[in-house]
Amino acid sequence: MSSESAQCPDNTADMAEKDSRSRKETRRYCNFCLIVSDGDPEAEILKKNDELVCFKDICPAAPHHYLVVPREHLESCNTLHKGHIGLVKRMAELGREVLREQGVTDMTDVRLGFHKPPYTSVHHLHLHVLAPSSQIHKSMLYKFIPGSVRFITVSYLIKNLEDYRNHTCTL
Ligand SMILES: [Zn+2]
Ligand SMILES: [Zn+2]
């Protein structure tokens, strides 16, 4: 049991609803809170700092597929507001840094983005970092289509956060 294993099957909407009923329950069973506190020996952590942790997605959809999560438990991109723009940018920066460290040279062929509720299996904000984006496995491609109902890229999320000034982002 670790990280995003629950995301592989496509039955996450029901779980999302169940979990969101009780914030406490979600927090108690949050896999990513466990990972950021070094409590999951199976997690392959690639980089961390005081604010963020980056680790391998357990169900990779591309040759490089990493997740960047804040240590703070934030539920999803829908709970973010304008004050989180800096955080989102730093998450993306760390993701790109890890890609470079892992040998990715073509930074134009990468995909960075977030799943939108209810298509989030782990209710702890996490940035998907994929490369090369042209090699995302066909069977999983639908999960990472920019502008779809499931997925929003970093640049679109930032634009949304800028637009929804002082309001909760309603994507
Ligand atoms: Zn968490
Ligand atoms: Zn996800």
Automatic annotation (TrEMBL):
Q: Where is this region: Disordered?
A: 1-20
Question: Motif Histidine triad motif: which residue numbers?
Answer: 124-128
Domain HIT: start-end pairs:
31-142
Sequence ranges of Polar residues compositional bias: 1-10
The organism's place on the tree of life at top rank: Eukaryota
Q: Provide the catalytic activity annotation.
A: adenosine 5'-phosphoramidate + H2O = NH4(+) + AMP
Tell me the PROSITE patterns matching this sequence: HIT_2
User: GO molecular function of the protein, one example?
Assistant: catalytic activity
UniProt-listed Pfam families: DcpS_C
Active site per UniProt: H126
In which family does this protein belong, per the annotation? Belongs to the HINT family.
According to UniProt, the name of this protein is: HIT domain-containing protein
